[in-house]
Write a structure and sequence with these properties.
about 550 residues; alpha+beta; D-Maltodextrin-Binding Protein, domain 2; Dipeptide-binding Protein, domain 1; Dipeptide-binding Protein, domain 3; five-stranded antiparallel β-sheet; four-stranded mixed β-sheet; 15 helices; about 25% helix; disordered N terminus
Length: about 550
């Protein structure tokens, strides 16, 4: 760690600034406040732009949708009490609670939050597919049926408490998709009033309501006293009074604040503090046992390196990665087991299968064989590609963020031993994210966290109609057979048949190698001992409505 006095000085400065801003908001003295840090920052509190986990976590405290997911990935009621799916799988009917209110706002009568109706969901969903809004979540509604008899609308408010959604074909993962933050309900009066500024003036129905946002410094949410959900014995949720989010970029300062009790939890183990707190086996060191609590859970997250394979893009035209054998050689050229052991403290599983991660129902490592460390095979591929021992092969640049430099440098070293020269270029997280979305980086570090527990969520990244920026296909992969299988799987209701189709698609990805799959992740949460009921789940969703602080 760097000089402790410098860290403490920076911490004191940040605390002072935070306190100054806190004085401008409602006093939170003697309140139960859950505090966490978001080093990557929050860019929007509009659920239509909840593309990354930072925005998703924040929006999850402010909004609700028709349905939600519990910690075991079961889809359960939320604003919708119950639902029906037609026999042909194309019409979803939701029956809404009649006691859910939006947060108070001056645009409502008497400033009091009004009841949510089915018409609000029609408005909210239409925003997602409105090209003028340009939501990155528009792809979630790719299967809508624009019925002429319904004024070409796929969403119908039959009355205030009944909503129908029409699909053009059966799509079994659809109910899971509706648990995503994109599908949160928003009030038209407030959205139209703020227009582009709605992202920093949010009004939802969630367990917490927006209070203040000092960009780059602090964000505060307060308890929603009118929240509609109760616990199992009828007590009102949430239990805590507020949430305070800071935006400290320095991981060492963040970790120090956690140890000092100024933060209630830290997520992940990618930071520079991992050597300080974890043993070689990924367990808490003895000196921290009893002081903090560590929670772990399989994580539906695939960490990978993406490769642009679209010859129509200028950045691809002169790249050696256009050759499939070079991409395959990279996949064979480094040891995933050593990488996880040395750099990830054995937290996570080496990705020796396909892109679908361990933990998904359709995952089958016996049927889907991926890449394992085989430097001789990698050399053979280089020779066949016209670059014996890497001779004549141009240097390849991989773009990453600070938190993953160690992974990329490990790969750089091992690929160098077989003749592949790799340069590691570090970019700020927001810059990296935007350049990847605009297809301006041809070799990049990326991860995909499941939005809903169906492998279609992962395979959608390679469907040709989902090219970024209008969808999640960051590699611009296009394969006729893959597309054919993908479209067939979307209409297949039988799980075992659909899983087989998923596995066949995964095999195509392994053969064509538009990605270098690194490992399947694991959720790790470090929590203060006085915090309970935080929970943990395979999609690493942060839900604070049932959290208790003693």
């Amino acid at each position: 760690m760097r000089n402790i006095s410098l860290i403490l000085l920076a911490s004191v400065t940040l605390i002072f600034v935070s306190c100054e801003n806190a004085n401008n908001s409602e006093s939170l003295a003697n309140k139960k406040i859950f505090r966490y840090n978001e080093s990557a920052g929050v860019t929007s509190l509009d659920p239509a732009f909840s593309r990354n986990i930072e925005n998703i976590w924040a929006c999850n405290q402010l909004y609700n949708g028709l349905v939600q997911m519990d910690n075991k990935l079961n889809i359960i009621p939320c604003i919708a009490n119950q639902w029906e799916i037609s026999e042909d799988g194309k019409v979803y009917t939701f029956f809404l609670k009649n006691n859910v209110k939006f947060h108070d706002h001056e645009k409502f009568k008497d400033g009091k939050g009004r009841n949510v109706t089915a018409h609000d969901f029609v408005y909210s969903f239409n925003r997602i597919i409105d090209s003028k809004v340009a939501s990155p979540g528009a792809w979630i509604f790719n299967n809508l049926d624009f019925l002429e008899e319904n004024n070409f609308s796929p969403f119908e408010a039959v009355n205030d408490t009944t909503l129908k959604i029409y699909l053009n074909q059966p799509f079994p993962p659809f109910l899971g998709i509706l648990t995503m933050q994109y599908c949160s309900v928003v009030p038209h009066e407030v959205v139209e009033y703020y227009k582009n500024d709605y992202s920093s003036n949010p009004v939802g129905t969630g367990p917490f309501k927006f209070k203040m946002w000092d960009e780059g410094n602090k964000m505060v949410f307060l308890k929603n006293d009118n929240y509609f959900e109760k616990d199992s014995v009828g007590n009102s949720l949430p239990y805590i009074d507020a949430i305070a989010i800071t935006f400290i970029k320095d991981e060492e300062i963040e970790f120090l604040k956690f140890l000092n009790g100024d933060l209630d939890f830290v997520s992940g183990r990618e930071g520079s503090y991992k050597e300080e707190i974890f043993t070689a086996k990924g367990e808490l060191k003895e000196k921290y046992k009893g002081k903090i609590h560590m929670m772990t859970n399989p994580y539906l997250n695939t960490e990978y390196l993406g490769i642009l394979v679209d010859d129509n893009l200028e950045v691809v035209k002169n790249s050696p990665l256009r050759k499939k054998m070079i991409r395959q050689a990279i996949n064979y050229g480094f040891n995933r087991e050593q990488m996880i052991s040395y750099l990830r403290k054995d937290i996570g599983t080496p990705a020796n299968s396909g892109f679908i991660p361990k933990g998904m129902p359709s995952f089958d490592e016996n049927n889907v064989k991926g890449y394992t460390y085989n430097p001789e095979k990698a050399k053979e591929l280089l020779y066949s590609a016209g670059f014996p021992n890497g001779k004549g092969l141009p240097e390849i640049t991989i773009y990453t963020t600070a938190g993953y430099v160690d992974l990329c440098e490990f790969i750089q070293h091992q690929l160098g031993e077989i003749g592949i020269k790799l340069k590691v270029d570090i970019l700020p997280a927001t810059t990296h994210r935007e350049l990847v979305a605009r297809s301006e980086l041809n070799f990049f570090r990326k991860s995909w966290i499941a939005d809903y527990p169906d492998a279609e969520n992962y395979l959608a990244l390679f469907y040709s109609k989902n090219f970024t920026p209008h969808g999640p296909n960051y590699t611009h992969f296009k394969n006729f057979e893959f597309d054919k299988l993908y479209e067939k799987s979307q209409t297949e209701i039988n799980d075992s048949i659909r899983f087989h189709l998923y596995q066949e698609m995964d095999k195509i990805l392994i053969e064509e190698a538009p990605v270098v799959i690194l490992y399947y992740d694991e959720v790790v949460r470090l929590v203060q001992n006085n915090v309970s009921e935080l929970g943990i789940n395979p999609i690493n969703m942060l839900s604070l409505k049932q959290v208790k602080i003693n």
